Amino acid sequence: MLSKASSLWYVDAPDPTAVLRANHDPDPDAALALATQLYADHDVVPATVGTLGVCAGPDQGEVYIGCYPGVTVVCSPQSAQVYPTALPELLVRPLASEHTYLVAFDTAHGWGAYAQWERGEFRRAFSATRVNILEDEGLPRVWERPFWAGEHPVDWQPGEMPDPQALPFDPPDFADAANNQWLGFHYRTGAGDESALAPGDISVCGFTLLPKGHRTDPAEVIPYPKRAVDGTARRRGIFGWLGGDRVSQHE
Predict the structure, then answer these.
(1) What was the pLDDT predicted at 242?
(2) What span, in angstroms and rounded, lies between the C-alpha atoms of 129 and 121?
(3) Inter-residue contact 147 to 177 (CB < 8 Å)
């Protein structure tokens, strides 16, 4: 179960879940081309290959991209948007995709966010902590109803006093439900079925973002390994939060 994630999905495939199940190796050339397009003001250096089970919420200076037929995922700190509607235009539709989805959360602070665009046109965005709604734009979707009806309450810890104004659901779970609705898998909760698609099944190509002109000599760049690293790989903190480094609003 992941505690943090910040991901953008660009989808043209009618069944993205089937695509992710059938394709285990992302296209590294397409990933590099997209990383270079999105971060033209940086030197983009290929780093490693991981999975969403490890790399869904990268640190500053990192980006992980998985390019599959009709489905592309970009995991970047820029996706951790307090206000999803402030997502830079370049990130909304860099591939002229039919659908764009943003899913981000940080369970340590009870924060979650998601957003949806169709052909670059905004449709829905929500961002909240357990007590404060930070953004709520567009028409709520049908799948949201059980959450607003209190069918997915917060799992308060023993001795933890709920705020009387707390939402009837945990925002990270709300964001995770959006991801499952759109992509067919959960970041946080399993479906109780070992055959269910999981973050660890989806490989992504990792890149280090360096200041322009600081790139390592290409001859010294380590090529991608043939296999993705597993979920036991070491990961550092993903992004700061309120009380520390603010989650990016306008990066």
Answers:
(1) 29
(2) 26
(3) yes
| Res 247: pLDDT | 38
Is 243 a domain residue?
no
Residue with tokens 């707390």: 166
**Nearest by Cα to 72 from 37, 111, 42, 41:** 37
> Consecutive sets of 10 residues in the chain, 251 residues long: mean pLDDT of each?
93 97 93 97 94 94 97 96 95 95 95 97 97 97 96 84 89 97 89 79 97 64 44 32 34 36
Burial class (CB in 10 A: 0-12, 13-18, 19+), 166: middle
Question: Is 20 inside any structural domain?
Answer: yes
Q: What is the 3-state composition of the chain as percent helix, strand, coil, each rounded to the nearest 5?
A: 25, 25, 50
Tell me phi and psi for residue 39, to 5 degrees. -125, 55
Tell me whether residue 229 is in a domain: no
Based on the number of CB atoms within 10 Å of its own CB, is 196 exposed (0-12), middle (13-18) or buried (19 or more)?
middle
- Note down the domain range covering 95: 4-220
pTM metric for this prediction: 0.84
Q: How far, CA to CA in Å, does 185 sit from each of 37, 166, 201, 227?
A: 28, 27, 10, 22
CA distances from 121 to 57, 85, 180, 204 (A): 25, 11, 21, 27
Amino acid at 100: T
User: What is the structure's pLDDT at 225?
Assistant: 44
- Name the domain count of the chain: 1
- Note whether residue 232 is domain-resident: no
Q: Are 104 and 5 in contact (CB under 8 A)?
A: yes
